[in-house]
Amino acid sequence: MKIKQPISFTIGILIFLLALYMLIFLGKWAGFFPLFISISLIFASFYKGRKVTVILGHMLIVIGCVLVTWGVYLLPYTGASILYVFVRPLFWGLISIFGGICMIYHGFCACMRRKSEKNSG
Predict the structure, then answer these.
(1) Is residue 1 part of a domain?
(2) pTM for the predicted model, two decimal places
(3) For a disulfide at 61, which of 24, 50, 100, 106, Cβ 3.0-4.6 Å?
(4) For residue 90, what are the domain limits?
């Protein structure tokens, strides 16, 4: 298969590597959420169109809300290191919510509508 969205593929690979680092070296179970997000981005990079982008955006917002709730619950137990920021669910929840909003807006922007109409017509 040909990669149709190289930026999504690159971001997905970077998040995948960070998630593997979290799972293997840090032993943090919170690494499963970035792993899921990265696999979803890699999957979406092989398809071009609005539907995959909008559906994935909604899924990321739901996952982000769960992660933010979990992260707020864990906030009193957070250490003072910058590493704690990147391995805690609150960070990944905010990234997921903002990324999901970005994907939904991109799914309805004029550039995607033109590409979708051009491919279907």
Answers:
(1) no
(2) 0.74
(3) 100
(4) 6-120
